[in-house]
Amino acid sequence: MSLAPRAVLVHRRTEYEELLARHGTHGQAAFFLSSRGRSIDEVARRHEDTRQALREVAAAVPLTWRSTRVERADLDRFLFAPEDVVVVVGQDGLVANTAKYLSGQAVVGIDTDPGRNPGVLVRHRRTEAAALLRAATATAARTDELTMVEAVADDTQRLLALNEIYLGPPGHQTARYRLDEDGGDGPGEAQASSGVLVGTGTGATGWLRSLWRERGSSLALPAPCDARLLWFVREAWPSPATGTSRVAGELGRGQGLRLTVESDRLVVFGDGMEADALELTWGQSVRLGIAERSLRLVV
Questions:
Q1: Half-sphere exposure of 272 (CA within 13 A, CB side)
Q2: Entry's InterPro entries (predicted)?
């Protein structure tokens, strides 16, 4: 007998909850903000809107289903099951934070603050939750297969991301490494920079787009479902020992960008999740390219 679907509601702490965690009480948090010319009322209103959205989405789960909730900070310890339907209730970035822990489960994005969030990934309103949950389990469920990027280190460590993967120093030092694409001749170009960013079409609405615009790049930005990545080296520094001839490029399926570390310590993290990063030391190498896994976002 197959298990009934399980709705996994993913959420994160609100700004109001973070204020309470720091200041202890509503009154102390209100005083802290008022002493800086701000009011807690707007923060509290958005908190209540988010809580109400969670309540409405939870109530929309069919009675024959199982359901649970997971907070963003616990995602790396949560075990998703094949029959799960993942409902992200919050901001666009929360979908990206969740994507790396999934393996083909359908994802429904519910926008808790329409007009404030861009709605690139959280495309739906809370009132649509019941219909979306039923649609997600249909044989012909309509989904977008969003391309993801992965980093694989030479010690088999692996990292997935929906928007982008960044490789660089853990602080404000300089990243030193050798960079080459698959099939390149020789050891690659030695570089000193602020790091390397490899992004997807979904990430082309965020950090990747910022670099693309700043660079005035002639490369076409990929769409979220395109099997194409763009990469940029940030602030490459020319010196007698380091070059700047390879600072941007494009990767298709099966192609990879290889970096060999020549620093004491570099970190690799995806979608801003610095707490869940790979750490690489001198002599290690890492390959970045299109992941075999994609994100199934219910449309």
A1: 14
A2: NAD/diacylglycerol_kinase_sf
CA pseudo-torsion sign 23, 28, 32, 33: positive
| 3-class SS of residue 167 | strand
Q: Which residue, chain included where needed, has tokens 């094949």? A: 82
pLDDT of residue 187: 81
- Whether the pLDDT of residue 229 is over 80: the answer is yes
Within 10 A of 60 (CB to CB), how many other CB atoms are there? 19
Phi, psi of 79, rounded to the nearest 5 degrees: -100, 105
**In the chain, alpha helices (H):** 15-23, 26-34, 41-60, 92-99, 129-136, 207-215
User: Residue 293: its pLDDT value, please?
Assistant: 95
CA 150 to CA 291: how far, in whole Å? 5
- Cβ partners under 8 Å of residue 177, min gap 6: 167, 190, 191, 196, 259, 260, 261, 262, 263, 266
In the chain, what's the furthest Cα-to-Cα distance?
68
Rounded to whole angstroms, how far apart are CA atoms 128 and 130? 6
CA distance readout (Å), 175 to 169, 182, 266, 282, 286: 5, 21, 7, 11, 14
